[in-house]
Design goal:
Low-confidence stretches: none
Number of strands: 32
Number of domains: 3
CATH architecture of the largest domain: Sandwich
CATH topology of the largest domain: Tick-borne Encephalitis virus Glycoprotein, domain 1
CATH class of the largest domain: Mainly Beta
Radius of gyration: 37 Å
Structural class: mainly beta
Oligomer: single chain
Number of helices: 2
Shape: rod-shaped
Largest sheet: 11 strands, antiparallel
Distance between the termini: 20 Å
């Protein structure tokens, strides 16, 4: 007579209830993956088993529901993959908990102070270079540097019904409105971010023929006492389409407040001449002044994009994901983290949506994948199992007592 079967059953049922209790306790833990217990029977050279043992606790890496996050750095993963984290000692961990924030130095960290890994954008403008190393991502806190205008566009229509100007009688002079038919402004920026206002004047010289002049009103180029203007001729065919090629008007300026002079071409390709009012379609240049950071967000491909007071956006870095051949072989280290083991295999590192990696969503958080209804049912089952094993011990005890009482 043996009590081992019942005792092993009590121990196994108790551990099963521990697993259920742990699942229920973490039902609101972001990125938590539920566990399920696995049993194995025990034989010792007999047809009658010696009871049950716990073969292991397996984790389910199925997706949790993605909900709205509360922080600009909150992230959620749908599909395969883990966030890659490193601690101060350089140890690497993996997690599905996407609750992140920035520390006093701008590094992105989780609630335990581990650093989120990815590619850091470098250069001006910042880009991610091919073969960049994976490491902690840092959000710079300084202002965005100014960028000088190096190109621009001006497209629109010139009124074919305008009268041609006799340039002998009225040579071009910005101070004399009779010497040009229309004027349009476009802004440009120098190497220090100083704003320059560029005036572009249009003079109709004949049917289907115009001249365009450019002048930087902020720091005009001077030849002695004379202002130097950029100049080009525009010719149109009978249908009003521009035939000048290339249609580029030079824009230049003198040095201003210590900045380099402006010198770029204003592309006018696509200009038309029709019998309707002269109008330009939002002329623009590619420069911008310096700007202070307004905030940042994570895009759905894991890129961290900052927005600035100058209306520009800039890439700061890109989060990477890691996946394993056997995620079930990872070792749980607590704090919603796992570590690599020989059973899990080595990680595959990549960006969101590449290879067999899932998709990263900015501004989202992955909820626990615990099914409370299923856990309540399991709790009832394991409770009955525990009671039944206790009953076998009680029955064995009563039989033993009967044998002891025999005279």
């Amino acid at each position: 007579m043996s009590f081992s079967q019942g005792l092993s059953g009590l121990n196994a049922a108790s551990q099963a209830l521990d697993v259920v209790g742990n699942n229920i306790a973490n039902s609101q833990t972001v990125g938590f993956k539920s566990g399920s217990i696995a049993f194995a029977d025990v034989f010792a050279g007999s047809q009658i088993g010696m009871g049950v043992t716990v073969a292991g606790v397996n984790q389910s890496f199925s997706d949790g529901v993605l909900g709205q996050g509360a922080s600009a750095l909150d992230m959620g993963i749908s599909g395969n993959g883990f966030f890659r984290l490193t601690d101060d000692a350089g140890r690497t961990f993996y997690s599905r908990n996407g609750q992140f924030q920035s520390d006093e130095n701008g590094f992105i960290i989780n609630n335990q102070g581990m650093y989120l890994n990815g590619y850091q954008a470098t250069g001006t403008p910042p880009t991610i270079e091919a073969g960049a190393a994976v490491g902690p991502i840092q959000i710079p806190t300084g202002q965005m540097q100014a960028s000088a205008s190096t190109s621009g566009t001006m497209k629109g229509n010139l009124n074919s019904e305008d009268e041609a100007i006799d340039t002998d009688e009225y040579p071009f002079d910005p101070a004399n409105s009779k010497s040009y038919n229309s004027v349009t402004q476009v802004d440009a920026y120098d190497s220090l971010g100083n704003k320059h206002t560029i005036n572009v004047y249009f003079v109709k010289t004949d049917d289907n023929t115009w001249k365009a002049y450019s002048s930087d009103t902020t720091s005009p180029v001077m030849d002695g006492d004379d202002v130097v203007y950029g100049e080009m001729e525009l010719t149109f065919d009978a249908s009003g389409q521009l035939t000048t090629n290339p249609a580029e008007l030079n824009v230049a300026s003198a040095a201003y407040n210590g900045a380099d002079p402006l010198n770029f071409a204003l592309d006018m390709d696509g200009m038309t001449q029709q019998a309707t009012d002269t109008a330009m379609n939002s002329p623009s240049t590619n420069g911008y002044p310096p700007g202070l950071m307004n905030g940042y967000s994570v895009s759905d491909n894991g890129q961290i994009i900052a927005s600035y007071s100058n209306g520009q956006k800039q890439l700061l870095g890109q989060v990477v994901l890691a996946n394993f051949t056997n995620p079930g072989g990872l070792s749980s280290t607590g704090n919603n983290c796992w570590s690599e083991t020989p059973q899990s295999g080595q990680p595959t590192i990549g960006t969101s949506g590449t290879g067999n990696l899932g998709t990263l969503y900015g501004g989202k958080l992955e909820a626990s994948n615990v099914d409370l209804g299923e856990e309540m049912v399991n709790m009832i089952v394991y409770q009955r199992n525990y009671q039944s094993n206790a009953q076998t011990i009680k029955t064995q005890s009563e039989i033993l007592q009967t044998l002891v009482n025999l005279r």
